[in-house]
TrEMBL record:
It comes from the Bacteria. Keywords: ATP synthesis, Cell membrane, CF(1), Hydrogen ion transport, Ion transport, Membrane, Transport. This is ATP synthase epsilon chain. The keyword Membrane applies. NCBIfam families: ATP_synt_epsi (TIGR01216). It comes from Intestinicryptomonas porci. Residues 3-81 form the ATP synthase F1 complex delta/epsilon subunit N-terminal domain. Produces ATP from ADP in the presence of a proton gradient across the membrane.
Length: 138
């Protein structure tokens, strides 16, 4: 078994010591981690983490971040994470629309704040990841 923890700036979003496999959305494509995987550090893209636990697949939508696998421990550090079953598509769509409108406004300003632009882009990325993950589960 693997130990998996998904950590956001708010704290531990998800963890279990009974994971059979975890599939991560990385820059170079999806990778699956099984017991005994070689040590690895990789960049995570916004997308869906698939976890097999107790023979059942669970999914989480995540924003960009990093993953590290050492021994049989997988740690994911990400800007945001949510279990797919907890996603409210209507709320996600509203948040995405607000972020897109704000981003367009900020980009039109002569002196825009790069940190605010990154925050808005992150909101949009995570909203898209949530939408795709939730729609895939249907």
């Amino acid at each position: 078994m693997l130990y998996l923890e998904i950590v956001t700036p708010e704290g531990i979003a998800w963890k279990s010591s009974e994971v059979e496999s975890v599939t991560l959305p990385t820059r170079s494509g999806e990778i699956q981690i099984l017991k005994g995987h070689i040590p690895i550090v990789t960049i995570i893209e916004a997308g869906e983490i698939q976890v097999v636990r107790g023979g059942k697949q669970e999914s989480l939508a995540v924003d960009k971040g990093y993953a590290r696998c050492v021994s049989d421990t997988v740690s994911v550090l990400t800007e945001a994470a949510i279990e797919v079953d907890n996603i409210d598509l209507e709320s996600v769509e509203e948040a995405k629309a607000r972020a897109v409108a704000s981003l367009e406004k900020y980009k039109s300003l002569r002196e825009s704040d790069p940190e605010e632009i990154e925050r808005l882009e992150s909101t949009i990325r995570f909203a898209i990841a949530q939408q795709l993950s939730k729609n895939r589960k249907r």
